[in-house]
Amino acid sequence: MTPFLVENERLKDAALQTKKENVAQLEENKAQLQRLTAETRALKHQHQRELNDFAEETQRKLELKDSEIKSALEKNECALEEMRKQMREKEKEKQSQIIKLQMEFGAKLARAQSMSVKSQTHRQASCPLPQNIFKRKLQFIQEEKNKEIESLHQRVRELEQQSLHGLIDSRLKKRKI
User: Fold this and answer.
1) Which among 154, 1, 165, 174 is positioned nearest to 80, based on CA atoms?
2) Among 19, 41, 145, 170, which is disulfide-ready with 94 (CB 3.0 to 4.6 Å)?
3) In a domain? residue 114
4) Domain for residue 115, yes or no?
5) Tens of pLDDT along 110-145?
6) Which residues lie in coiled coils (predicted)?
7) What range does the domain containing 13 cover?
8) Rounded distance, CA 58 to CA 167, Å?
9) Considering the domain boundaries, does residue 169 fall inside one?
10) What is the spatial distance between Cα 159 and Cα 162, in angstroms, rounded to a whole number?
């Protein structure tokens, strides 16, 4: 055989071998591509499951927190209503006490006025009149009542603010989610 033919045969064999290697490499690449596609699909499914689990857990936590907030709000409302009730009762007690003292004052004032002028002149100038004592006592009790009422009003406002802020915070958290 001539050297050209030998060289030509050798080149044909080399080309055929390269073609076989290319086909084998192509098959290997296809198999690897399928394997990677399957892995990617599996990872996507796993990621989606994790996202769903996280969303469910978040929803559960939100519902739990919402129920806690509602419970706290109901407790605050009950406490607020109880304080209002106590405030009304104290107001009634103070009013009845004031009326009682006014009646006592009126009776003692009438007695004092019915005394003779002679017994009034015998009193010392430094001794305070009974009507002044009762006026001061009545005024003191009224001031105490007003302070206590104001204190209760302030506590009611604070509880209403807390209740309002808790409700607003709860709604804002829901909107953010």
Assistant:
1) 154
2) 145
3) no
4) no
5) 776 676 444 545 554 445 566 778 888 888 988 988
6) 16-104
7) 3-108+128-176
8) 20
9) yes
10) 5
How confident is the model at residue 135, as a pLDDT?
A: 84
Residue 152: partners with Cβ closer than 8 Å, 6 or more residues away? 83, 86, 87, 90
CA count, 13 A, side-chain hemisphere, 97: 15
Quote the tokens at residue 14. Answer: 């080399």
Instruction: Find, among 133, 141, 138, the residue nearest to 90 by Cα.
Output: 141
| Residue bearing tokens 């989606």 | 48
Residue 100 identity? K
Q: Which helix (H) or strand (E) holds 165?
A: helix 130-176
CA distance 33 to 144: 88
Q: Give dist(CA 24, CA 142) in Å, integer.
A: 105
Residue of 111, 104, 96, 89 whose CA lies nearest to 137 = 104
| CB 90, CB 156: distance < 8 Å | no
pLDDT: is 117 or 73 the higher one?
A: 73
How far apart CA 38 and CA 17 sit, in angstroms, is 31
Whether the pTM exceeds 0.85: the reply is no
pLDDT of residue 156: 87
Helix (H) and strand (E) counts for the chain? 3, 0
Q: Please tell me the total count of domains within the chain.
A: 1
Residue from 144, 170, 166 nearest 80 by CA: 166
Residue 74 inside a domain? The answer is yes
